[in-house]
Amino acid sequence: SPLAASAHSDEDHSGHAAKIETSETKHVGEVGDHEKARAYFTDTVLKDHNGKDVRFYSDVLQGKTVVVSFIFTSCTDACPLINQNLQKVQARLGERMGEDIAFVSISVDPETDTPEKLNVYRQDFDAGEGWLFLTGDTAAVETVSSKLGQVFEKEAHLTALLIGNTGTARWRKLPAYLPDNVIAGQIIDIA
């Protein structure tokens, strides 16, 4: 209608793109924001590949960009391929690994995947200090997995990568089969 056309012609729409951009790059600087993130992601205690207890939000997610994958050590299909690709991405990221970027591989078979098994498994992929392999009791792993949108079924686990930064509240889900240079670029963009 002419009325609708005139109403839209007088509006300045130039700010819409900026609003969309800033909504993705929100910075979490307030203590309350960190408390909200901790409340959502939880400080559920898991065990790393060295057998050390880690709190999921405070020790694993907070203060860094993370790349989360779901694996199990007896997987012969997707998991080795995902980890081989992450091995290449790790090499591309260089010194940032373990500094402001970390990989977090969570076992969806915690009854089988002990810290000792995960420690041996991670060596197959030359996992450096910035690449954590996590397990724990079934309830703890299920809690953390559900917060990340993972259906807790070993054979139906998520094969995508979740890249996120709790400090900026930016998260992306990427297919794990993308070329390593593309994944590395996406990680750097989120970081």
Protein described:
The chain has about 190 residues and is of the alpha/beta class. The chain contains eight helices and seven strands; from the N terminus they run αααββαβαβαβαββα. The chain has helices spanning about 1-10, 15-25, 30-40, 55-60, 80-95, 115-125, 140-145, 180-190; strands spanning about 45-50, 55, 65-70, 100-105, 130-135, 160-165, 170-175. Helix 6 (about 115-125) links the parallel strand 4 (about 100-105) and strand 5. Helix 5 (about 80-95) packs across helix 8 (about 180-190). It is globular, with a radius of gyration of 19 Å. The termini are far apart.
Q: How many individual β-strands? A: 7
Q: Indicate the mean pLDDT.
A: 84
| Proportion in β-strands | 15-25%
For the sheet with most strands, the description reads: 7 strands, mixed
Question: Rg, please?
Answer: 19 Å
- Termini separation comes to 46 Å
Helix content: 40-55%
Q: Give the structural class.
A: alpha/beta
Order of SSEs: HHHEEHEHEHEHEEH
Give the number of helices.
8
Low-confidence runs (pLDDT<50, min 5 residues)?
1-31
Overall form: globular
- Write out the strand line-up for the largest beta sheet, numbering strands in chain order: 2-1-5-4-3-6-7
